[in-house]
Specification:
99 residues; alpha+beta; isomerase
Length: 99
């Protein structure tokens, strides 16, 4: 399974329709993170860019996942397959013992 970085360009103007779909978008993202399909999700402070890392077999599979996003009609995605993606959570820490 590969990892893909998806960079989204968000609309300059946030319409009422866009804002109304944000709660469903967050719910979908949370579900995809819980199932391990999305490992990272970030929004720029100026709210013009959004990034996520998706685990998928192919770019077509990434597109299938993106099609489930309630806000996809408002986003312009650019997909890049990653060679690797190091994260701080990937570092193994010793297990804490209660003894």
């Amino acid at each position: 399974m590969s990892q893909f970085m998806v960079e989204f360009t968000l609309p300059d103007e946030m319409t009422e329709e866009f804002l109304a779909k944000i709660p469903r978008q967050r719910q979908k993202i949370n579900h995809l993170m819980e199932t391990g399909k999305i490992t990272s999700y970030a929004l720029s402070s100026d709210r013009t860019k959004l990034w996520c890392v998706i685990k998928a077999d192919t770019e077509l599979h990434v597109l299938e996942i993106l099609s489930q996003f309630p806000l996809i009609d408002f986003m312009e995605p650019t997909i890049s397959e990653l060679m690797f993606n190091n994260t701080a959570t990937a570092v193994k820490l010793p297990m804490f013992s209660l003894n």
